[in-house]
Amino acid sequence: MQVFYDRQSFSEYINALKEQNKKIGFAPTMGALHAGHISLYNAARKENDIVISSIFVNPTQFNNPEDLEKYPRTIEDDIQKLESSNLVDAVYIPKVEDIYPNGMERKHYDFGGIENEMEGAARPGHFDGVGTVVEELFLQVKPDNAYFGEKDFQQLKIIEKLVDVTDLDIKIHGVKIHREESGLAMSSRNMRLSEKEKEASSVIYKTLKKVDEWFRVISIPEIKKRVDEVFHRDDMELEYFLIADENTLKEVDFFSTDHSYRAFIVVNVGKVRLIDNMHLN
Ligand code: PAF
């Protein structure tokens, strides 16, 4: 596996691949890699000649400076994990100035309104920051296919819109949520949980499974009441739970027959903000 620490050598590598008409699969990350990331490269390996990873903790998508500061940075370990996965041909680890040569500014995007729902409302500027870094990475990596985890389902939808609004010819693939045995969705933030908190956090997945059982059986207000009750506890705080139309990501308060729905949840366990979601069957 090749490791590139600067834009110049990386773009020479990419241009050579493009000249040879290689099909490139790409999954960007912010590091602190876990099995969920590896599942992205597994998916990419099946349909591309070359699989590329990137590691860059993107400052413009953090609305909370403490969250940025505390974000785990485990670069040596990450390189080791990518290497031993045997799935990745190259990893790009750019410096801030490789991504933001003109200063660390967020672009402003119109994603048709989905950027204002849920995480967009809870984290002002977050999706503009994600759009800015992913657009720049797409321009530098020039992938044919790009892979994003469904854990950040709203992000996945935003990226689908991003390639539309920027006219980039890249196919976006969503990859199913990878879970711990307990059901807890894998996330780089899980590293910041104690063993006890980790164990307790499995209630998030268990609750989503209950919601799936209650889907179309009891009303949404009643489902929300039950979820609220589950989180009447001292060791974690429910930030939001809602059921949204899977396409518009707008919260709904009743089910129509011909729409798909997904439940979304955010829970704060100590200072760690955990997000999860589930398609309702
Ligand atoms: O999902 C992430 O890790 C990040 O939001 C991404 C897509 C790598 C952009 O920084």
TrEMBL record:
Homodimer. Its EC number is 6.3.2.1. This is Pantothenate synthetase. GO terms for biological process: pantothenate biosynthetic process. One of its GO terms (cellular component) is cytosol. InterPro entries: Pantoate_ligase, Pantoate_ligase_C, Rossmann-like_a/b/a_fold. It comes from Epilithonimonas arachidiradicis. NCBIfam families: panC. Pfam families: Pantoate_ligase. GO terms for molecular function: ATP binding; pantoate-beta-alanine ligase activity. Beta-alanine binds at Q61. It is an enzyme of class 6 (ligase). ATP binds at residues 30-37, 149-152, 186-189. The active site is at H37. Gene3D superfamilies: HUPs, Pantoate-beta-alanine ligase, C-terminal domain. Keywords: ATP-binding, Cytoplasm, Ligase, Nucleotide-binding, Pantothenate biosynthesis. It comes from the Bacteria.
